[in-house]
Amino acid sequence: MATYITLINWTQKGMENIKESPARLDAAKKAFQAVGGEITDFFLVTGRYDMVMISEAPDHETGVKLALAIGSAGAVRTETLSAFTEDEYRQIIASLP
What we know:
Elements: E1 2-10, H1 12-16, H2 21-34, E2 38-44, E3 51-57, H3 60-72, E4 76-83, H4 86-94
Antiparallel strand pairs: 1-3, 1-4, 2-3
């Protein structure tokens, strides 16, 4: 599974409908589950971003499709980072020439 860290900000539209935000999160969770993925963690945060989401998808193509689908709804802007576990990090470093 590919792992992602998504940094999220509400758009003006998202703020205007802020009380719908939990339902949008529930819909995102269902969308991930429908394609074999999962939102593993979700945080409301302070600072530059409004929310942070940790998720998994079967592959990068599916991960990108999910990010585009969430962003296209217009309530949030996202910045998605591919993440590597500690084991993956160690394998990457060990494989360097």
